[in-house]
Fold this sequence. Notes:
469 residues, three-stranded parallel beta sheet
Amino acid sequence: MALMSAALGPKSLFGKNIFSVSAKPLGTFPVRGMEAINDFGIVDLHCHPSLKMYLWNSKIWKRYHPSAGANPFSLQYTVDELAGGYAKGLLVAHYLVEAAMTRESAVLKKLFPLIKRLFLGLADKVENEDYSNFTQVNLIIDTLETHIHLANQKQGEVKFVIARDFSEFEQALSQSRIPIAHAVEGAHALGRNFPLTKSNQARRQKTPAEDLKHHSYIRNLEALSARGVCLMTIGHIFQNDLVFPVEGISPDTKQIIQMDWTYTPEKNFPLTDIGKTVVSKMLDIGMIVDLTHSTPAARKDVFDLNRSRVAEGKKMRPLSFTHAGAQHIFEKYEGCNQNIYDNYKFYDASDDEIDWICECDGTIGIIPENFWLIGCDTGLNKKYKNGIDYIVETIQYINSKSRTKNYDNISLGTDFDGFADAPGDLFKPSQFPNLIDRMRSNAISDVNIRKITSGNALRLLRHGWGNPS
């Protein structure tokens, strides 16, 4: 949708190329005074401000006017929105737009040649589908870090901190600053189609998985970890070298962009050999594995690899769905889809997966996007405008299936700034109090609300990020 919007002529609309980065020095700017971080401040497991910074050169210190829906250009996470104090920390997921989008969407397939001619800089920001994907994702990380530095500079004090490890994340919280941790969405960021080089006879006798242990995927993974990347969503919209996807785009959006690709249970493929090797390495070095977007078979492989650590004398790592819902709640609402969207439910966690998340002391980040919670949104039925009630219903259902029944494995992952179809009552951070109030009115105690808003996410980071003894 963003690429389609880009082709509508921003030069003529705005009188300048909005995709160029100004080299002029940036002056100070008026910012509303930061409120103290609220006791119920949210650690958001999944958001995308770097995507809009990278694509459009959006600036976190400017004021935008987001609304319900996809917000293709308006930043939802800005200095002004964060000033309210209801966001405690962010895991910013760096997403490199997949080239398959320009082939699988009939609309984008027609528009992309035009974008290449008119906006070469924008076209270059789509993945290259080779080793240089890794360079591209590092550029996205650089972009975020530069924007955060400038935001602090323009305010005259450090209010945001890029955290390279959990101790830095925790220290920023203790100083009433907002820590930002790097995450990556889609293992295509590691690169694609690396050849399996075999330098000698001994290497030729090894299995493909063993051959990968010192391969480019692992080198690039370790380099991202050294930059402070705490989490990777191994799957995304299209297949990569590690894993196959489930549905990741809602049917109304697929209709708009004319995308025919569909997920069916026959495509429930496991992790590839590369995937198993990379996931095992992630568990060892302490990069959290996000199961969102991967097939159920691949997710089971990740859980099994995590369990196998116990036999090796290691502890299981906490795993996560950072922005998902519950399959049971999705199935419950048949008024909109009447089972015609059944295969979309595999995006969400099953009852077994909820239990397995509890087994490893992980957490499920609930997404404020109606379609992935209940199989319906305003694009399919105007009745489904607001979403907080469905979020709370999903929270309570997951808790009912958890081992402790004490809200120990539930968090929030907004997908803000990721072109997600946000509901009318929760499309920007300043609306977080509405969610907190609704949880209270549904008899969720303040102690448990704090777990949902930040406590469980912090435990995930404490035990999943890095290599603690």
